[in-house]
Write a structure and sequence with these properties.
mainly alpha; two-stranded antiparallel sheet; globular
């Protein structure tokens, strides 16, 4: 459900969804889970989030956002280093060091003011960097959109989280509840936009996949992600060749599959460092990406 709410990049797409998608062999099941997630959002999460935004003082909301952003920076250290993005790893490490100490556990963001750039790398990108194909698209109950490869991100955070070593059910409920509400607040403006789409599910799915595809290639994918119907001669699901990270030398001449959909235009860049929801994260250059 929480990742369903991270529709930020997806919902702001200005493009058409494909009726059938190469990456969605489990579409009937995924649509059922999407309907369930959306119903929970409308009846529970959306009202709670609106109350949070309306009644919690802005300095408190900013502190909460900074706190979770500091945890994002912690994971970014490892994800950047694993992709040999040394500068990003150093900036993320510096941000965590400064914001965790001087910034009182990350509540105050001193790093940005000191010129330490915020990155947006994750473990799904790491796997894509090493050529692991995306696998099928999944709409996860109570979480939102993922691909099989992108599941490395929430799994990694669960077992490596610096705060998850605190063995307390009360802590877990409070921590994750606040995390969900804070993340939902980031995409509150797009709630009405989503309702105007003729096919919400396909809109979110295609936007998420395109965004992750772009993100794997650092905003410069070698060719458009083929989202259309599989070729009549071979309707098997095989996203590997189109989703593995392609060598830079082949970027200019990389072929586009017949009938491939052109990627939708990029959404406006958000002020948030990285979406923690199902919609996906925004690229540093504002382009949609598929992790």
């Amino acid at each position: 459900m929480c990742r369903l709410l991270a529709l930020v990049g997806v919902l702001l797409l200005a493009g058409c969804a494909t009726p059938q998608n190469n990456y969605d062999p489990l579409e009937p099941m995924n649509r059922a889970f999407y309907a369930m997630n959306r119903d929970i959002d409308k009846k529970v999460l959306l009202p709670v989030t609106r109350a949070y935004v309306a009644h919690v003082p802005q300095p408190v909301q900013t502190g909460v956002k900074n706190f979770f952003g500091n945890i994002d920076d912690f994971f970014d250290i490892f994800a950047s280093a694993a992709q040999f993005k040394g500068t990003k790893a150093v900036h993320s490490f510096s941000r965590v060091l400064v914001n965790t100490t001087v910034g009182v556990g990350g509540v105050i963001d001193w790093g940005t003011g000191l010129g330490m750039q915020k990155s947006d790398e994750d473990f799904g990108q790491v796997l894509g960097f090493y050529g692991v194909p995306s696998g099928p698209y999944l709409m996860v109950p109570f979480y939102g959109p993922l691909t099989l490869r992108d599941s490395a991100e929430p799994i990694g955070r669960y077992f490596m989280g610096p705060l998850d070593f605190i063995q307390s059910p009360i802590w877990d409920v409070g921590y994750y509840s606040l995390w969900i509400v804070d993340a939902r607040a980031d995409v509150l403006p797009i709630s009405d936009l989503l309702a105007t789409q003729p096919d919400e599910y396909a809109y979110i799915r295609d936007g998420y996949l395109q965004r992750r595809w772009s993100k794997i290639h650092d905003g410069n994918p070698p060719y458009p992600l083929p989202l259309g119907e599989p070729d009549d001669a071979d309707d098997s699901f095989d996203p590997g060749p189109t989703d593995a990270a392609a060598p830079a030398a082949d970027s200019a001449s990389a072929p586009v599959a017949d009938g491939a959909s052109q990627p939708a235009s990029a959404p406006p860049k958000s002020d948030r460092g990285g979406a923690r929801f199902s919609i996906g994260d925004e690229e540093e250059d504002g382009t949609l990406e598929v992790q």
